[in-house]
Write a structure and sequence with these properties.
This protein has 272 residues and is mostly helical. It has a single domain, classed as Hypothetical protein af1432. The protein starts with a helix and ends with a helix.
Length: 272
């Protein structure tokens, strides 16, 4: 089933990205295409789809919440570019590796600074070097929650919201579940959904953060992000109730295509 998910996601994502790029301004599109150029060669199959989801989510948050697009959109587009400098297996990074988290943030910050300062007119678009440094700092710290470090600014938290909206997207949820299923770490998709729900909705998570320093459990900062996240959980619950994991691989491939198309339509509809 994972191979089917990979094939369908790989096939559809370029078209999704083209639709998204039509909603970006010229400089955002230039950055997005720069990232496409490195991440398609990276070898991590879901990276282009992750970039699509996070960029579209941030554009939606900027639209509905009136956020600073000049800072947050470049940060969202470039945030994981550092993974192109690391060796990652076909089926995904070791998300529990603190060193890998830190390495990709540090590499990404350097790469982003070079791109922002070298792209035509980009420094003027973000009001000079000071704003470039703010973008770079978001990239340098965007996975702080996974290494036990807090976020220091509102914009860092807003970026975290957009990045987190990938977690419960169709491809992300099922790739992670199928990988865990293969390793024997989990046996039931219902239990996996419950675990995801606890990490997003556990009422005691603020206390968990305070007591343990585990910043993975911070709630969504923005109401728009929570609304979008709620809809993702509704969609995954509906799919599980329809028996998605019990489908024949051929049926799962068609079902995945249909759900990914619906998901893209929904995400892009949130941009206006």
């Amino acid at each position: 089933m994972l191979e089917s998910l990979i094939a369908v996601t790989d096939f559809l994502t370029p078209a999704f990205s083209e639709r998204l790029k039509s909603r970006l301004n010229d400089k955002e599109k230039l950055l997005y295409e720069a990232v496409e150029g490195v991440t398609f060669a990276e070898g991590n199959w879901y990276r282009p789809h992750h970039n699509f989801i996070v960029t579209a989510s941030m554009l939606s948050l900027c639209f509905w919440e009136g956020l600073d697009r000049n800072v947050l959109m470049p940060a969202a587009i470039l945030h994981d570019i550092g993974y192109s400098a690391l060796k990652i297996s076909k089926y995904g990074a070791d998300w529990n590796s603190r060193d890998k988290r830190i390495a990709h943030m540090e590499a990404g910050a350097v790469m982003a600074a070079d791109i922002l300062k070298g792209t035509a007119s980009m420094p003027a678009e973000v009001d000079g070097v000071e704003r470039v440094e703010e973008i770079v700092e978001i990239i340098r710290t965007h996975d702080n929650c996974y290494i036990g470090e807090p976020y220091e600014t509102d914009n860092q938290l807003y970026h975290r919201d957009a990045d987190r909206l990938y977690v419960m997207s169709f491809s992300s949820f099922y790739k992670d579940f199928l990988n865990y299923l293969d390793t024997g770490k989990i046996t039931s998709v219902e239990d996996y959904l419950l675990g995801r729900g606890l990490s997003f909705y556990n009422e005691s998570k603020e206390e968990v953060v305070e007591e343990s320093g585990n910043y993975k459990y911070i709630p969504f900062t923005l109401m728009t992000a929570k609304r979008l996240g709620d809809e993702q959980f509704r969609q995954r619950t509906e799919e599980i109730n329809q028996g998605v994991i019990d489908m024949h691989p051929e049926h799962f491939a068609k079902y995945s295509k249909d759900r990914l198309l619906l998901e893209a339509d929904w995400i892009l509809s949130e941009l206006s």
